[in-house]
Specification:
The structure holds 2 protein chains of 2 kinds. In chain A, 70% of the residues lie in helices and 0% in strands. By secondary structure, chain A is mostly helical. Chain A has one domain. The longest helix of chain A is centred in the C-terminal third of the chain and has 24 residues. Chain B is an alpha/beta fold. Chain B is globular, with a radius of gyration of 23 Å. The model of chain B has no long low-confidence stretch (mean pLDDT 94). The chains are: A mainly alpha, B alpha/beta. At the A-B interface, helix 2, helix 3, helix 6, helix 7 and helix 8 of A face helix 2, helix 3, helix 12 and helix 13 of B.
């Protein structure tokens, strides 16, 4: 109701919905449950005065690209260092549900030494690839974001 | 108008409760007051995995309907972020007008105080350690026994830390540990045990958690909810003892009466405070006042009454946390088990000729997001790693002796209590040595100290505060005598951690309780003699 009577609030809320959707898609790799996204919006409204961080369109279209800025120097430039906190908050919200508990604790996943070792290697490999890519594509990404006036 | 009691106990935590028993048994009239915060939710009753996989309202337990746990995501113990414990820590800094400068402060205005969120580790001080106290060690030993029998201990085990913990004569059998800890302990006993010169010693934790039923409290059910609150009352909480105290006719309990000051009086000391429910101020007069509000709050009240504005040292243990991976258990399904400390260890640090102490825990009861926020990896990859790794890991904490904490506390003339941190240059080297001993020790028994996991905690983050008004043989103003009586404020006894002359690396709550019991006995005897 608040958002109907206040266009600014409505606009901010829609940006937060997109932001939440993008962050969840980035963390989980799948389309998130709307309940999590709505709770994320409430959380930001409650603890961050409802201010969206302004996720660039590139990341909205390709949420996986957030890996290029998550825990990198870009996080401070683009998001005032708040992306990490928001990812953590989104993560807690998702984990505190039966779906999240299963996904985070790996309860439904097959458990064996080989399977888990493959999971570890996969995580390590992708982390390494992204770190290398961050180094290689740092300047192209910087200029791309600068040309779109995302960087100040 | 004032009402007179024999003794007023300020605070209903472990120290307050322990000091009250001997007074009540001697027939003295006792008034106990506390901040009055009460729990607003109940801990989970199902085992950890059951409620996590079925309860659709679990976000109230994990993050809280006001997003409580997300307000302080950046540091400190996960326990401080549990919404069910919000009432324990609420309003403490504001009411006591505490300004922390680079030093974490945690305290409680709840019935039962910080024991509501206690990890329940216990140990006695050794004879050598008790030589720092201005009374014979036999006095404290009597109280150790009395407290142990009342609260119930577990962990009795013929291991390398049996003498170090010093509680086995009163402790029941240990609580069952999970398979990773069982494996590590078996390997340790086979390879390293009995090497008394070893830098790394391991044993069962000794706990104020029940392995056998005791009165209304049930033995631990291994539900894995230790971090979230113990629904069976297996973990000791002073709040559970208040109902026992109420059975004494000479006891009056006044929750929600927050003491604002002690008024020095030529005849009898008086406390003045405010009733939480109606904001009415009231004074109470007593023959004796016992300060058991927790080290920092008690210091604030005492310094204010003494007009003591000098800066004094506060003892607290520098801490660290770490994670150990046990490769043999990679791929092990998640297992519900005991959620508090399972194995304890002691490290001999050559650098300072001192010891460090710690315990290790299962990773299960802790939200995965707690780990995810600290893993130096991108979120999706970190999550994949943790999902595959955590079931084969344990986490641990480490404590150094409290004289290294570097805390300073001072009452300002405006009435604020400023607590600041003065870095101690020794701590960095000692934690580095501890890290290397831990890595070596765990490697020998099949574990790997995960690189990057060893993290030094914030100053004051241990929540072991002590020693602001230490007991001395020849105390000066602002210190306490052998019976905790504050010099400069006759009739006021400090019975909590504030009067400890030393703070070792061991769990300290049991010693605080025993000392409070000892002071309670002394005052009870004193009243008897007067009569």
């Amino acid at each position: 109701m608040d958002s109907l009577s206040n266009p600014d609030l409505s606009y901010k809320r829609s940006l937060l919905l997109i932001e939440g959707f993008t962050i969840y898609k980035y963390i989980l790799g799948v389309k998130p449950n709307l309940v999590f996204v709505k709770k994320y919006v409430r959380c930001i409204e409650s603890l961050r005065l409802g201010a969206p961080i302004g996720v660039p369109k590139l990341f909205i279209v390709f949420p996986g690209m957030l890996a290029m800025v998550d825990r990198s120097g870009f996080e401070n430039i683009l998001f005032n260092g708040d992306l990490h906190w928001r990812i953590n908050a989104a993560s807690f919200i998702c984990e505190s549900s039966p779906f999240g508990a299963r996904a985070y604790l790996g309860i439904n996943q097959k458990q064996s030494m080989i399977f888990n070792l493959c999971g570890l290697l996969r995580a390590g490999f992708f982390e390494l690839v992204v770190r290398v890519a961050c180094g290689v594509f740092y300047f192209p990404l910087y200029f791309f974001l600068a040309s779109r006036k995302y960087l100040t | 108008m004032t009402i007179k009691y024999d003794v007023i106990v300020v605070g209903s935590g472990p120290a307050g409760v322990s000091s009250a028993y001997p007074l009540l048994k001697a027939g003295l009239s006792v008034l106990m007051v506390d901040g009055g915060n009460q729990p607003i939710s109940k801990p989970p009753t199902l085992d950890f995995l059951s409620w996590r996989t079925t309860d659709h309202r679990q976000s109230d337990l994990i993050i809280g309907n006001n997003f409580y746990s997300l307000k302080s995501l950046n540091g400190g113990s996960p326990k401080l972020r549990i919404p069910g414990f919000e009432y324990v820590f609420k309003d403490y800094l504001e009411f006591n007008r505490i300004e922390n400068k680079g030093y974490s402060i945690t305290g409680s205005l709840a019935a039962g105080g910080l024991s509501n969120a206690w990890g329940s580790g216990v140990a006695c001080l050794s004879q050598a350690e008790l030589e720092n106290f201005p009374f014979p060690s036999s006095e404290l030993n009597l109280s150790y026994e009395s407290i142990a029998r009342r609260i119930g201990l577990s962990g009795r085990s013929h291991d390398d830390l049996q003498i170090y913990h010093g509680v086995d004569m009163w402790a029941k059998a240990p609580i069952q540990i999970d398979s990773i800890h069982e494996y590590l302990f078996a390997k340790y006993q086979k390879k390293m045990s009995k090497n008394l010169d070893a830098q790394f010693s391991m044993g069962r934790t000794r706990l104020a958690t029940l392995s056998e039923n005791l009165a209304d409290r049930k033995a631990c059910s291994l539900c894995g909810n230790c971090l979230w609150g113990c629904s069976s009352g297996s973990i000791y909480s002073a709040a559970d003892e208040i109902s026992n105290l109420k059975s004494y006719e000479n006891f009056r309990y006044l929750p929600g009466f927050r003491v604002q000051e002690i008024i020095p009086n030529l005849k009898l000391p008086v406390i003045e405070g405010i009733h939480l429910k109606d904001g009415v101020h009231q004074r109470f007069e007593a023959g004796k006042i016992f300060l058991a509000a927790g080290t920092i709050a008690s210091s604030g009240l005492a310094f204010k009454a003494l007009n003591l504005f000098k800066e004094v040292s506060i003892l607290s243990c520098p801490t660290a946390a770490f994670m150990v991976w046990v490769p043999r258990f990679l791929g092990k399904p998640r297992e519900v088990g005991f959620g508090s400390g399972q194995l304890a260890f002691r490290l001999r640090l050559d650098m300072g000729n001192l010891h460090a102490y710690g315990a290790t825990f299962s990773t299960l009861g802790i939200p995965v997001s707690e780990f995810l926020s600290k893993v130096p990896m991108r979120a999706p990859f970190g999550l994949t790693m943790l999902r595959n790794l955590l079931s084969s890991c344990i986490v641990g904490n480490l404590f150094l002796p409290g004289n290294l904490g570097g805390g300073k506390i001072q009452l300002t003339e405006k009435g604020a209590l400023v607590v600041r941190h003065e870095p101690n240059s020794e701590v960095k080297g000692l934690t580095k040595e501890a890290k290397s001993i831990l890595a070596r020790g765990y490697r020998k028994i099949g574990g790997v100290l995960l690189p990057g996991s060893f993290t030094i905690g914030n100053p004051g983050g241990d929540i072991h505060y002590a020693g602001t008004m230490p007991m001395r043989m020849n105390p000066s103003r602002g210190e306490t005598d052998r019976n905790g009586e504050l010099i400069g404020l006759a009739g006021v006894h400090v019975v909590d951690g504030a009067c400890l002359p030393i703070l070792t690396e061991k769990p300290h709550t049991f010693t605080i309780m025993a000392n409070a019991d000892r002071i309670g006995r002394y005052v009870a005897d004193e009243f008897q003699l007067q009569k």
